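Entry type: protein chain
Record version: 2
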Amino acid sequence: MVIPAFNAGRTLPSCLDSIAAQSVQPYEVVLVDDGSTDSTAAIARAAGVRVVQCEANTGPATARNRGVDAATGDVILFLDSDVVLPPGLLARIGEILTQQPEVSAIQTVYSPECPARNSVSRYQNLYYYCSLTAVRLYRVATFATWCAAVRKEVFLEAGGFNTSIPEPTVEDEELGYTIADMGRTILLARELQVTHLASYNLRQFISRRFRMAVAQAKSGWRSVRERLLKRYINIQETGTHHSRGVVLSILLTLAGITGLALSPFTGEASVTAAAVSLSLFAVALLCHTRLLATAVRTFGAGSLPSFAVLCLIDMAVLGAGILWGTLQFISGRRY
């Protein structure tokens, strides 16, 4: 097990407690302290965890690769320091890999609920839950390292994480595409649901989603055929969480915002232009019917207005990030 951690003192104890509570204990736990300035390393050592120390913050791609270099097991489970495991998860992963030798990697999902009580955190958590559980294929191309296992030999064959990607954005996403394109099987284990302890305010959420969209745009342009067309635009189901509905929703939201921005200059037609924009927003939300319906079932009907607003903000931010990432790529900033 490899846990990259940077200033994770708040959530790491709960993460490590959930590991200790497993019905089957891991062969080893390697925590890579990625230049933390808090008590992360001390907490890990007190729990008996092996610590690999980075002198400076190197980013999750480099940290995870260093963790794999230090690990001696045949299977690597990547785990984020703000994730809590259900008690039988390690046992189930072991069963799958033993009983299904054709499976090279296993992807878990977030649980639909998270400890954070604010709407922003709930939305972000539920968005990932719905996006992944909506994937219908047996073999997927998704490898999200909040909690994902891979056979070490496959990881090494794939070349590990791309250390040119400095931030926690698409380094794990690109590795998943590489594993899938090698013809290896990544199993999406929808029943293995982990709890995400992260809590976001609106500013943090917008910053995170924008940064992610910028990185995804650059990733797509770096490989137009294999990532931009095959994975991100996703005309056919290819086992990723980037659905056609999300792509359409982004376009509709951007069109609606453009219409509202131009409506003051359209004279007598301004009311009509505004009405068209509102209609575009409504259609954009229809692309997220599953997300909004799940929010109502999980948190009650009162959550619908805030989730709808956050969804439109999310699509606008993703669209802006994609445009900015494309401009950066054109200017020569490829990573």
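Comment: The chain has a mean pLDDT of 95.
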